[in-house]
Amino acid sequence: MSHNPSLERRVASLVHAHFEALPQRSKPTIHGNGMREWIPLSGIVLVTNENTPEETLTCVAVATGAKCLSSSQIAQCSGLVLHDSHAEILVLRAFNHWLLEECKSILTALDETNRDVNSLLNYSGSGFIKWNLEDSNIQTSIPWPPFRIKDNIKIWMYCSCAPCGDASMELCMAAQEDATPWELPVPELRNTGNPDGQQQVLLNGRAHFSILGAVRRKPSRADAESTLSKSCSDKLALKQVASILSFPTSLLLAPTPNTYISNIILPEEELSRTGCERSFGNGESGRMRPLNGRVWEAGQKGHGEFEFRPFKITPLPMEDFERMWKYGKPTSKSSEQKVKTGNASAVWTAPPSNSTRPPFTTKWNDTPNFLELEWHKAYFKTPPTNLNETLINGVKQGYRLNSPGFKKASALSRARMWALLSDIFKLLNVYSLIPQLLNDSEASSLSQIVLSAPSYDFLKSQTVTSKYSEARAQVLRDVRLVLKNWIRNCGDDAWDLTVLDAPVKEKRPSCRLREEFRQ
Hints:
Layout: H1 7-20, E1 36-38, E2 41-48, E3 56-64, E4 66-68, E5 84-86, H2 87-108, H3 117-122, E6 129-131, E7 147-149, E8 153-159, H4 169-175, E9 189-190, E10 200-201, H5 232-242, H6 247-250, E11 261-267, H7 273-280, E12 295-297, E13 305-307, E14 312-316, H8 318-324, E15 339-341, E16 344-349, E17 361-363, E18 387-392, E19 395-396, H9 414-430, H10 433-436, H11 441-452, H12 456-463, H13 467-483, H14 511-518
Parallel strand pairs: 1-15, 8-11, 11-14
Antiparallel strand pairs: 2-3, 2-8, 3-16, 3-17, 4-5, 6-7, 9-10, 12-13, 16-18, 18-19
């Protein structure tokens, strides 16, 4: 191991090491005709006590992917299929899944024989999450949401490619043989899901790169059916205000400052300062500038608050990146090589921090020697793992989108995330935490909705009636109005948790009955 490496180098190497430890089925391949696959990679690393002698790094989520579903496929998903499998979005879902598992592990570790108030308030068992208390020596009840990320934690994100959409427009221009702006498109108008009901223009992912600062679709082939999934640039811009918490985790974790991405690392050649400042920034050219200084109070004290918190963007030297990553997208230097985007996505998450085999953690002075062939094994051979999936077209490898039953569903799917959320609420009720410590009428109401909602649409619409969830919903509306042209990807919400029930197998008729039928 070398000493005193930069933080961005250590974060990137930790993400790459976890990817290298994945099984071969989760990685791009080289085909018999010499065709090489490439794939974007993203990871989430939690930095504890940053810039101190006690600093540690823990990679909790890794994902690869470059595909998404067309708009016509959304209605077929029934909560079992992932709409957006771009690496950046998958890793955010994976991180939220890890947060839910971390919350669940705190509850499952409670000693049922010693559940007095003081013991519960002072117990966490997690290295990253704690009860949502300002001072456990004073308070005798917990405000809702019940958990919060610890104050000494910062969220770092690593991406091997520039986010698709507005932040990468300058890179798209530079890659063109002719960088002359294209003619403006004939508008394709939609008004589905717009808060003001007005028609808006849908802009393709890479097309018409002279139009800057616009919300875009995910990029796709010119002959491919269009999608309504927004670009990674747009979704990451939204996270700067709404926090990294997704809908399920937002019901359990307070939106404190450290629920926001602190820093995003990009390879030097994947970073356009102009594009990123426009797409994510709050300066003169930043499209997020109208949100400067805005604060959305999330209910009473202790509930947290939403605020525009721009993340920093840090470059990773190309020398380091190229030594770590052999599945990168083609460049002009390698244009003669046969390449294509990989179809498979990989998802990995660490186990909860109080597991018998907790997540792998490195100290401030640990980083491998990249000149060694198998440099990643300086960290580990196989890291502690909770979830490891290989996905194709939003479902587990070996299944199709229209495959019957629930076994195709990723742990990151809407249905399975709701089921995990339900498990946590059941534990809160089992330990009598909602009536005893979470003495909040909103908590009881939320519990009832989560456990008995007749549809996913009902779940989302009714939880918004709580003061905390209402604040988050207002944040989403306000940010989408600032970004403009944000058209909702609707149609996958008319289902409930019975989609995860095992189908009842029909009994085969006996031999005698089959014989009688033939006669």
